[in-house]
Amino acid sequence: MKNIFWFLLAALLISCQQEEELSEADKIIAQAIEKAGGEKYENAIIEFQFRENFYTSNRKEGLYELTRLRKDSLGEIEDILTNEGIKSIREDREVVMPDSVSTAIAESVNAVHYFVQLPFGLQNDAVITELIGQDTIDNKVYHEIKVTFKQEGGGADHEDVYMYWIEKDELTVDYLAYRFFVNDGGIRFRKAVNPRTVKGIRFVDYENYKTDNLSTPLEDLDDLFRKGQLTKVSQIENEILKVEIQN
Fold it and tell me: Which of 12, 31, 123, 236 would give a disulfide with 206, using CB separation of 3.0 to 4.6 Å?
């Protein structure tokens, strides 16, 4: 009995220590994920249309399959990203391609699913979070959280930097920005629009803006947005076709 007691006490102390070690930014993100869908993400089948491509996300008990159905000059091709890696299928046959091409396809597929399912992807071992402070947009107070990535597990674009504005009371991700370095680099600022909840999971579309001043700190972009000093480059619409929560 004494051994069981000490085991339970040690487990409780470890649990409390881990909770204390959770940063304030991580706590806010965890609350935002719970508000947006929580555990439903972990066992969801999601089908959606983004631009000309059809996407599916199938998650079950830690396993995932993220797909994209697209067309090229030879017809339809399906890209399939799983825990085991990426493959592309055409007419039931796997397409052989250089590693560099496969990596680019995997990053492209993952990026679309990442943005559609935000803030779910922010709880990842490769994610490093930092609470920068608070700011006010349209009379609402927002937590400003900076996100960077470890090189290991952070993907080919691990040097990219993100900023998320999470509403203090509603815990919704209403704005985000990111700095990227591929294709000569750039900065984007997104405003979430058309929020809707399907089977308990929150989805949004985005107004997509840019600034040509690449030295602009990401945390200043909300101020530039309020002043009308950002240029709108696109409207990002995700047509959610199906959501199924698996038991």
Answer: 236
**Distance of alpha carbon 236 from the chain centroid:** 15
For domain 24-242, the question of CATH label 2.50.20 is answered with: yes
Q: How far is CA 232 from the centre of its chain?
A: 21
Per-residue H/E/C for 174-185: EEEEEEECHHHC
> Cα–Cα distance between 131 and 26 in angstroms, integer?
9
Sheet holding 173-180, edge to edge: 127-137, 140-149, 161-167, 173-180, 186-198, 201-210, 231-236
Global confidence as pTM = 0.86
Q: Which residues of 34-59 are buried (b: 16+ CB within 10 A; e: fewer)?
A: ebbbeebbeebbbbbebeebbbbbbb
d(CA 115, CA 205): 10
